[in-house]
Amino acid sequence: MIALADAGKRYNRDWIFRQLNFKFENGNSYAITGTNGSGKSTLLQALSGAISLSEGICRWEIEGKEIKAENVYRYVSICAPYLELVEEMTLEEFISFHSKFKPLIQNISVKDIVEETGLHLAGNKKISQFSSGMKQRVKLAQCVLSDVPLVLLDEPCTNLDTAGIEMYHNLIKKYCSNRLVIVSSNDMVEYRFCNQAVNIQDYK
Question: Considering only the top CATH level, what class is 2-203?
């Protein structure tokens, strides 16, 4: 569970959002919506613990136990356009490397993930040789298939074709029903499964 109380974030004198009160609860999926540049990604980063609020409180809990801000990263996986892959590695090498930091969902192997992404013909290719859509599939797989209770998705269908978007929704349906999922997007295709939404522009 993540609870925001009178939360606000500003850069210099410009408030990105302010007086935001909201509770994100496990087992639900939420969309953070708003126009380009409205602050969706900033809020998502605050929820991940990567940046601190300028005012108010963000509280994280797991099974009623409070988690300190500096430890939140252990329970979070995130997929975002601004995050990079290790392109010198092959797909299988990268997934194995990533799993040393964030363990994979139980009973999921590296080979399983390669199959889930539809990239079984590219498992031993360097990621530097991948198209932008293939790289996005890898980002989604490493995020969704990490064994953490909080999944954060920032514009998750960036560079995906129709088949890639279907893969994305299959991953969500198959692996995220018992987790807290938060999607930052202004495209309903990306958050159509979400049962609640926060419009960041309501908190300016």
Answer: alpha beta
